Amino acid sequence: xxxxxxxxxxxxxxxxxxxxxxxxxxxxxxxxxxxxxxxxxxxxxxxxxxxxxxxxxxxxxxxxxxxxxxxxxxxxxxxxxxxxxxxxxxxxxxxxxxxxxxxxxxxxxxxxxxxxxxxxxxxxxxxxxxxxxxxxxxxxxxxxxxxxxxxxxxxxxxxxxxxxxxxxxxxxxxxxxxxxxxxxxxxxxxxxxxxxxxxxxxxxxxxxxxxxxxxxxxxxxxxxxxxxxxxxxxxxxxxxxxxxxxxxxxxxxxxxxxxxxxxxxxxxxxxxxxxxxxxxxxxxxxxxxxxxxxxxxxxxxxxxxxxxxxxxxxxxxxxxxxxxxxxxxxxxxxxxxxxxxxxxxxxxxxxxxxxxxxxxxxxxxxxxxxxxxxxxxxxxxxxxxxxxxxxxxxxxxxxxxxxxxxxxxxxxxxxxxxxxxxxxxxxxxxxxxxxxxxxxxxxxxxxxxxxxxxxxxxxxxxxxxxxxxxxxxxxxxxxxxxxxxxxxxxxxxxxxxxxxxxxxxxxxxxxxxxxxxxxxxxxxxxxxxxxxxxxxxxxxxxxxxxxxxxxxxxxxxxxxxxxxxxxxxxxxxxxxxxxxxxxxxxxxxxxxxxxxxxxxxxxxxxxxxxxxxxxxxxxxxxxxxxxxxxxxxxxxxxxxxxxxxxxxxxxxxxxxxxxxxxxxxxxxx
Amino acid sequence: xxxxxxxxxxxxxxxxxxxxxxxxxxxxxxxxxxxxxxxxxxxxxxxxxxxxxxxxxxxxxxxxxxxxxxxxxxxxxxxxxxxxxxxxxxxxxxxxxxxxxxxxxxxxxxxxxxxxxxxxxxxxxxxxxxxxxxxxxxxxxxxxxxxxxxxxxxxxxxxxxxxxxxxxxxxxxxxxxxxxxxxxxxxxxxxxxxxxxxxxxxxxxxxxxxxxxxxxxxxxxxxxxxxxxxxxxxxxxxxxxxxxxxxxxxxxxxxxxxxxxxxxxxxxxxxxxxxxxxxxxxxxxxxxxxxxxxxxxxxxxxxxxxxxxxxxxxxxxxxxxxxxxxxxxxxxxxxxxxxxxxxxxxxxxxxxxxxxxxxxxxxxxxxxxxxxxxxxxxxxxxxxxxxxxxxxxxxxxxxxxxxxxxxxxxxxxxxxxxxxxxxxxxxxxxxxxxxxxxxxxxxxxxxxxxxxxxxxxxxxxxxxxxxxxxxxxxxxxxxxxxxxxxxxxxxxxxxxxxxxxxxxxxxxxxxxxxxxxxxxxxxxxxxxxxxxxxxxxxxxxxxxxxxxxxxxxxxxxxxxxx
Lengths: 669, 562
Description:
heterodimer, A: alpha+beta, nine-stranded mixed beta sheet, six-stranded mixed beta sheet, 16 helices, 35 strands, 27% strand, B: five-stranded antiparallel beta sheet, 11 helices
């Protein structure tokens, strides 16, 4: 039988999801094995007992590059720049985001000043050569890179986004001198203007390239040793995948390879279930990640930053706030109630876990309120110490004359507000009404907050997907191949012909990338878009270009989007092009939709006392797989790694695919 | 704000405060993203906030920390002038006069009263820098001697009445600008931000009801006050002084502006007195009282609870005493274009005055000026304006080197203009952009480095410069050395060169070169106590020696200026 496998390496666990021809999925969770993460992958594969020769697709989400970056253990990178601009990377943009801090320091760069080399060459803004590349100087720099013991080189020259000729030539020259070095050019990695951001992206790419190459090489070697012949794909920040071979040379595109799995999963459900507009929330121990699916597509952004270092690369838009189960509840000397952003993390963790945690957390608040029943556990969840949690909550609450339950209720109110605020930032701020979306919640604490968030935002449909605990890995299995290509395209008055020509060239480049991965033309989906703005503005909006368009109709769309986003527009104003983009994708053969495996018992496993709206009520406790007919809250629904709260006034049903769907009773609340 | 007897829960207090701040942040993001002028979306020369019906702050998001208190101060001043009765629903007001807003006329404040169920409950407001409000010359006028040379003065004026724009009035304002298109665009961005603020305000009140919101506000304000008082109480009682001078009054080197700061700590109260400072400048180094207070509040924030959000309860234990008729509170005709240098100096002096009793928060002197370089085209009607504030070195502190190439204290999330953007938009070529080696003050902890930036004109252009702090550059503390002072050299195509610090609309032919060196930050502690490891690294990285050509270590790099 043919199997498809996805593996998601997280900080603590490595998750495997395996789907067979019948659509039946299995999940395996093993501990991650840093620094030799390949071992965790092999452990999970061994645990799954899938014969590797039967695997037809292998998708992998890895935080290898990201971790190397966060821990500053990437490659020893040399940077080659235009003469006169050695310090562009170190100067940055000169801003002080922490504006009341007299001791502010910039984000730590990935290389130091003695790793930056200048080469005489110069283009002007139109790409014309002002000063030819000094090839002998390139050779001299090459010698110094050899003697410096560098293992990767980043090349970034001014205005190379309009003309890559000097960067390519320097790359050629250095490649013969430095056969073992990974050499990355800015015109290849991020052909967009703004030299600091482009340099940062290029350096970062060089910084993680050797590590990614080694890691993926080792993984493929180990897999083929064990008899696997299936292609290996790596998830990309943009929500697609690419082959591991290509990932070695486009490492920067895989930077957010890990976190996107959940978003891809949500996007897949949106299309499978016809819930085309969906808010995806991943509620973990320390963070709350929100993403938006509109009309079946995940929203992407053209750039992001990691620890303050900018990256010009398309990434699925994930808005993160520091709120989760581990968020610490405290009261300051002036009686102010605070929740987070500090987290108790995995160690010492919440008080109720009994690992030495002394300060109450959001998880403890749920425990005190009976939302996580201590005596009705499933699987290998740990023992919960309700008394310790209550005592800790009581100690904290006594400072502002609140009982343990009252403090727990108040703390949840604050954390739910903060989570809802993060959702508002992605919706209300863009002129979108969250009430018109379905909320898709997953992650360890997704089910505990989903209904409360829906109440806060007026949302009337809440989806808790099957395989909730391994949803991210499941999502990776649903991705398709995707490449984003971009070119700068500054035109104040563009002609349709001009745009068409540029798009055609861009589409050809994107199609060639797909073709190199064996995708046939009939399966290719090319989505062109343009970055537009009012003439003179800085920030652009990315507007999808429909199959049939004119310059005027694009302008119409732009005015409309602009008004939606900012509440005002200037239809009379000149519009200018900034960049053109093509997203090229090819879906994998869809997996068979999984269905619930065993018939439900239709009986709860017990009852407990749980607090809703400040009152303790008798609450039925269900196993997810036991739910048959739709049932009304209050109820708690348990599964392997998660609990879902169904408050009074809400109804829960289990769909044929084993998802939970929560809706308010009697429609609008 | 009147407080009814509604008692909000702790969660409600937290949520209401957070909601006002989130509302202001939403206003700010909208302003950045829809503004037309780089000075707003990159230099972040703006501020937004939500206020109660007396102009007391509820939540704010300054782009420029300098404007921390000036938006509220402006609204309060207008309330005082006009009375509360003048405000009506869906009105939008505009004002830029320096005597009301405190800073130069380019900073235009737009605000709207917020009515809930027919009662005035608050205001939302935005202040942002407009490129051109009709000053005597395009760009930054460097030689003004009265406010009438600096542009159109707008007193408190209703521009929208009940949601309807007074088009004639807007036309009048736009007609006075060399760049009417971006002016109207920037105005609309500010107005949109105000509407966002009003919507957020209304949704907060709708959720909890007015009495609960009012009482939650009173609670979070009184807690902010208690925090500030507790922090000041930890500073030893006493009187602490520091003084220094700017190079000039903006016109004349013989008349430096003297700034004297006396900080008195008495229990939980801090009094900052500017008595002894120079009288009103003949040039444009003057600031209205509203901006003077705002700057002193910012310096207070550097030293007291820097991490806490600013609310209407902040600064209640700060008293600012400003002599009438001084450059910090001049008469209504005073030129105010360069309202920043003496204020930044005062802020740094306040830090210096308290450095012996608050060493953990203090730092040596920083760049201290905005170092403006402005080019406009030299022939005919202005078609382009490239204005930049340049970054420099910050002061070291007891525990760390000062940061290099960072914007001055008055600005925060400012971003410099990419070379590629400049060359794409303007007939200029940037030929050098580098750290200025050796510019950081020596010390056990070294001051941050300034930068070197060179421009070449590709067409005839007019150049304006305003560079301060060459005679008293950023000082060291505890035995640390001073940072290097800034220098600018202009070289004509015939190789004729001159060093200039301040000039207004100097005509340059194509092919002229402007080399700018910005200053470094002061050092902390005696230089000979610097750890060998750090001293060696500074040398290896070329941070302390005159610049070497990085590719030819044995040849010294011959900068045009040195």
